[in-house]
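Researcher: We plan to redesign the surface later, but first we want a full-length starting point. Tokens attached.
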């Protein structure tokens, strides 16, 4: 009986410690990746902002989940558009392009699993000396949930490599003209 009491006390003390530590961790996260392209900025901008290209480069794609089904809305090039997806492995989600500054900025909002998880992304496109640099920033909030805040310490390690692979896929897909 004494063993059970000590075990329960240790369990609840651990939960309490996780809760307290989680309260003092950052409530927001930001992941940044950059990639250089030997392309004019308009080619990079047009490719990323065209929602129809998403499956070719974005980390949520049919290459990871062959059951993905897409539903596009207002999918014109350079327009404020969105895509909804549903698949067995990737689940349900929506990506909305909600802010564009021609050849300079693309801002997207993503929601997963009926808005239970959401985040924002922005692509800043800069041109200098014949090189177009894309700075991709993913950011979001954890709220007050201490488990989400603890997970936030590791989110760069989870999403960062996928972002890097996506930026490399863009380079392979672009048909660049001389800058």
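Model: Full-length starting sequence:
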């Amino acid at each position: 009986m004494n063993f059970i009491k000590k075990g329960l006390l240790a369990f609840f003390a651990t939960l309490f410690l996780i809760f307290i530590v989680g309260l003092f961790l950052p409530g927001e996260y930001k992941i940044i990746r950059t990639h250089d392209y030997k392309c004019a900025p308009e080619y990079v901008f047009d490719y990323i902002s065209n929602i129809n290209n998403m499956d070719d480069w974005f980390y949520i794609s049919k290459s990871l989940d062959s059951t993905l089904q897409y539903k596009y809305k207002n999918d014109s090039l350079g327009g404020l558009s969105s895509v909804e997806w549903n698949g067995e492995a990737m689940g349900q989600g929506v990506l909305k392009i909600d802010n564009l500054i021609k050849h300079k900025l693309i801002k997207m909002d993503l929601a997963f699993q009926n808005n239970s998880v959401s985040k924002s992304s922005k692509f800043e496109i800069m041109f200098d000396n014949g090189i177009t640099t894309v700075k991709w920033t993913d950011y979001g909030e954890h709220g007050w949930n201490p488990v989400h805040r603890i997970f936030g310490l590791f989110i760069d390690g989870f999403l960062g490599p996928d972002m890097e692979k996506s930026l490399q896929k863009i380079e392979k897909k672009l048909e660049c003209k001389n800058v």
